[in-house]
Hints:
The chain is 35% helix and 20% strand. By secondary structure, the protein is α+β, with helices and mostly antiparallel strands. The chain has four domains: 6-37; 46-198, Galactose-binding domain-like (Jelly Rolls); 206-473 and 512-529, Glycosyltransferase (Alpha/alpha barrel), CATH 1.50.10; 537-591, no CATH class.
Amino acid sequence: MKNLKIKDIRIIVLAILCLCVSVVKAQLPPVFDNQDLQRVRTSDLSQAFIVPQGIVWTSDSTGKFVQNTEMLLNPSTGQSDLSRGDVFTIKNDGVMQHGVVLDFGREIQGGIEIVTSRGNPGPPVKVRIRLGESVGETMTDVGVNGATNDHAMRDFEVALTNMGRLEIGESGFRFVRIDLVGADAKIRIKEISAIFRYRDIPYLGSFTCNDEKLNTIWMTGAYTVHLNMQNYLWDGIKRDRLVWVGDMHPEVMTINSVFGHNDVVPKTLDFAKNQYPLPNWMNGISSYSMWWIMVQRDWYNYQGDLSYLKEQKEYLVGLLHQLAKYIDEDGKEILDGERFLDWPTSENKEATDAGYQAMMMMAFNAGAELCRILDETGTVALCEQSIAKIEKYVPEMAGTKQDAALLAISGLISPQLANEKALSLDGVHKMSTFYGYYMLTARAMAGDYQGAIDNIREYWGAMLDLGATTFWEDFDIDWMTNAARIDELIPEGKIDVHANYGDYCYVGYRHSLCHGWASGPTAWLTQYVLGVNVVEPGCKVIKLSPHLGDLQWVKGTFPTPHGILTIEHQKLPDGSVRTTYEKPDEITVIVEN
Length: 593
């Protein structure tokens, strides 16, 4: 260094500074300065472009007005060019507007990319785009049978120019209808692709058994939640593109079973906490604040993130003290705010009241568990006192499977009683997509694993039989009578289940066919059939307790914070189960067959 001149030192320092600046500016183009960075919001999402898998319908069977539809099934480039070759062409005849319905193979979240070719007239030509979760939805105007642009634009017009490329739309859909607007208009289109926007994460968990329908149900539940893992964790990708805290619980249990730790969960929980500071209830619904506590408990048990849990201490303690004020001298909860379990029970006050009593017990049990970890002894005592009060009032089951399930899970009644008097009755009638997860859990607690497996096959399997690729906001097994599939034009004499069913806020085509709260079988099959039970937070100890029912074998993987646990169970001729596994060194596995 003694031989270096001042000029040499300046050159070295300048080079180092340039290198540092280049590293910073690699994140954004150099025209963005530090003030610009304060105005930049990044996204966790990736996107891919998907070519249609099939043509469902065209308005013209002659080939005169809708031509070369098969060209849309070719691989896409996203680039217009100067070619004058054959491309997809629509021409209107002055009498009617012509169009086409495309099928992209499965439900996605995103929009549409349209690439036009050479030879289009000016000024720009308009097309009408209708996105649909079912074929019927794409064939319907807004305002008819519940079809809506609420939450996401799925019916709109856009202008297409010559040799251009347009990205448009943001909704949940599988099908798209495109109609040419204008009496004598014509358009030449080189490509139409779906823009799939998703979180690019691996499926670390898996489930495979000798029943292919159960395998498909497990994966469909996983995919349903994956689509809703956008920049925040949504409930639906067409409608309910919102953060609903209660609806998160089944979704988070699915994430724990399939994806492991993902930042979308704490990010969404914090969003809700900041949006609804105490004494507000989450989403204005008192039960959803209780669900927030249970989500925090289960997220910590599976992921073991103590630093994140400590960040929740002040709010958690405040919420538990607030809840404790809503227990009367007889031990009955008297919560205010909107009182809601799920939609099918929303008009049954007795069922809601019984469910709320159970949820108070569940919330204080979860709160006590978390406060012990946080060394919050005063609040632990408050939780224990509240539990003792709540135990004094045990409501009757009010004739719904929802309140029976919650009462069993809370410990206020025995799971065997809930199963005998409600859950095992009437097959899958009176099940619901959201609370179906808790009905399955309560049946498992009663030891009726086969009954729960049968419910999964019949209830969630029925949606698959109707062409579903994601699970729905609501479903009633009676809808299967004379039902048409959602991936076809409705045959004469058949019922369009998307148009004709639904209730409350989800009538007709407003009904979401991709709702994360319906993913319960994925988490349930992992816990009770594959047998993965977390014993110590962070998966430090896992108990394998498989219940195969009528299955011959099951195998799969489970994501832990320390790596992947690989499991296989084989039923032997004497009915016993042989279990083998491979585990990360950091965890202990206990086998209980």
